[in-house]
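_Full entry_
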Amino acid sequence: FIFNNSGNQKYFISSADWMTRNIDRRVEVTCPVYSKDIQKQLESIFDIQFSDNVKARIIDKKMSNRFREKNDNIKGIRSQFKIHEYFLQYEY
């Protein structure tokens, strides 16, 4: 999660598996991220996810799970591939 907090952003990580069975029968833990380097990585990943115009879906108030509208004049960005490319730049 990234919360704006009046311009003072707060970063948190947690499980991405927020399904009913996990919320009702387990404890989901969220923790803050203090490292500026990791915060920058998280922000980059969020930006990549938000730019997806190939596989992104929109869940509206009716809970329809439709594809995001495509613009043929813009190069396609598939976030899973872009995130893979992003992490290839790091040596672990």
Q: What stands out?
A: The longest strand covers residues 10-14.
